[in-house]
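note to self — DONT lose this again. spent like an hour looking for the file last time. sequence + predicted structure for the chain T wanted, 114 res
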Amino acid sequence: MGIPKLRLKVSVQDYLESEKINQVKHEYLDGEVYAMAGTSKSHNRIIKTLLNKLSDHLRGSDCEPFFVNIKVRVEKLNRFYYPDIVIVCDEDNEDEYYAVKPKLSSKFFRQALH
């Protein structure tokens, strides 16, 4: 029987600082950090189409869609993740690199489809 691998916990502050310089994006779950896989061209085409439509729809409002590198923080679960698209409104100005009160996140689309 093997010995379980020891996983060191990473602080939120250390995670956030390392994400600013890392080439590979990581999601954060209660102190554990997981590298994310890349995406396909088809995936990117779909996201681009959605982003363009959302941008047109939200024009003139206090909300704005972001994609790729904006994290969402789920404080109850002590988690950060990178949705494909996230809609952030003016009241969500806590941090430049993540949202805490997104109006919509593509992570919810995926959960609703499964």
